Amino acid sequence: MPADYNGRWEMVKNENFEELMKALDIDFATRKIASHLHQTKVIVQNGDKFETKTLSTFRNYEVNFNIGEEFEEHTKGLDNRKVKTLVMWDGDKLVCVQKGEKENRGWKHWIEGDMLHLELTVLDKVCHQVFKKAE
User: FRET pair for 29, CA 20 to 30 Å: which of 16, 53, 57, 92?
Assistant: First the structure.
């Protein structure tokens, strides 16, 4: 059985987010606001079906997916692009590949103890975010 991602996760670390946003061509003002936000992730997992919400005081983003089923994702609230998204299991890690305008785009999620790690990639930029499970 893969890892259990269910829960509310509060951001505790956000490394290289500004560089990732630059690679996505996000404007200066939005980058400055977004880089100072505290994000909360809410994940509801039912087997291979995921409902995810990323919440902040600036923008919220929701994406729902089934493992192994490619879907069209409109990254409204992020960089406002349409991408073909596919999320797969790699052991206990969730690995996402997003095909579209930007090369080498995707993310990986994994859990270590009560910490949820998220590694976001675009082009040659990598952002590492860490979230602590809320009680």
Answer: 53
Q: How far apart are alpha carbons 91 and 115 in whole angstroms?
A: 17
Average pLDDT, the chain: 94
- 3-state SS string over the chain? CCCCCCEEEEEEEEECHHHHHHHCCCCHHHHHHHCCCCCEEEEEEECCEEEEEEECCCCCEEEEEECCCCEEEECCCCCCCEEEEEEEEECCEEEEEEECCCCCEEEEEEEECCEEEEEEEECCEEEEEEEEECC
75-92 b/e with 16+ CB inside 10 Å = b?
beebbebebebbbeeeee
Over residues 40-72, the pLDDT tens digits come to 999 999 999 999 999 998 889 999 999 999 999
8 touches 124 (CB < 8 A): no
pLDDT digits (tens, 9 = 90+) for 87-101: 999 999 999 999 999
Q: Residue 124's pLDDT is what?
A: 97
